[in-house]
Amino acid sequence: MLYRGSFVHCPQLGQVDILNDHLLAVNEAGFIKHFEPSDSINSRRYLDTHLASQELIALEPGNFLLPTFCDLHLHAPQFLYQGNGLHLPLMKWLDEYAFKAEEELDSNPALAKKVYSGLANRLIEHGTGAVMLFGTIREETNLILAEVFLNAGLRGFIGKLSMDISTRPTYVENSAEESLVAIASFIGKLKAMTSQLPVHRRLVEPVVTPRFVPTCSNELLHGLGKYAREQCLRIQSHLAEAHDQVDWVRRERGAEDVEVFEKNNLLTPRTVQAHCTFLDSPSLCKIHDQQTTIAHCPLSNAYFSAEPFRLREALNIGVSVGLGTDVAGGYSIDIMNAMRQAVVVSRMREGARTMGNISSRVSLAIDWKEALYLATRGGAIGLGLPDGSGMFQVGAPFDAQHIELFKIEPARGIGSFDVFELELDGHGLSEDMVEKWWCLGDSRNRLATWVQGVKLAAIPVQE
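The structure assignment produced for this chain is given below.
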């Protein structure tokens, strides 16, 4: 497949490259095999050689391709009640909403398939191509989740919950030993599900998932860390999220969250820790030294944490950071909203610094370019996606979304994107246009989404 037109990506934090009139070619395995300006000698030769045998998609003015978004933290079963219960503090919200919904899906496979199919379709609609997911306790329900995402063509990192402590007596694993046997069984079955596929089509992978310290005994955390290290597995959890949760860990374990995870070998280069709002500078340095990634979830932090995440401080010392929606702790599944909220929170922190309420010699704000990096390239790095993911370059997988801003004939904007003057004059897409889309765009601007070169389509949702 050949694509010609404008491409937008963020090779590094704060940099947005707008590449007008480029030619991109994708091979049968879904990797980019050519990417250069359309008028280059190599592009002309490539067209002469391949145009007769490959379809060419030519993007019209007002259109561009962008890497797909990465969501580093989402609770799949909580999609069932997305947008409810946000008036409660975290630990009470878990009791009254989260555990109940997860247990309901564990007892009803048909409902689980319906919820997960709807979730997959929403992610495609909103341009998310890769997502790290918390599941439930029961193995079968998590395998349903994995099968749905495999059929949808999305990159899904599936975490069967490990928890041998719970405030809900009917929703808990009986012991650390039972939990460790269960996670090994789940991982074996999920790997078997994809083992017959070519490596580049194994888009769904398992993740070791201790829910968080209050639901895991020390024995379980130790066992999960050991197993993840032996099997070279990804890890995800929640770290220093909310005031009541942090106090519980200090009281019951006599340590900080980050110390508990580190002691049990659960801070690794393959780990994504969500939230981290109560981490101070030394703790952020520890995260950096362990090469662990943080999933920044600004919307859910506003509801459940008494502190905003120290995003600028983390970025300044080189911590790997991506964005998460944290559905249903966050009510929006759209990473575009997470980008905007990350900027808003950072600007409020900068306002507090300006007023003397935060001690810092440097600005604490981030801008839209940095947020776009976190949603694409930064998230891809945090998830450990194939080399070059989150950018357009030769050898990278073609994970992309097609954005349409306006039509020239007749001149009109798409969705919330209004057009008053078209100043193309042969210069193509401008930075102002991309910024305007970043602020105002929505799913009406998204015409298509591809993962590993395959154009995604909505999957049937069983009624």
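Interim note for the steering committee: The mean pLDDT is 95. DSSP finds 14 helices and 18 strands in the chain.
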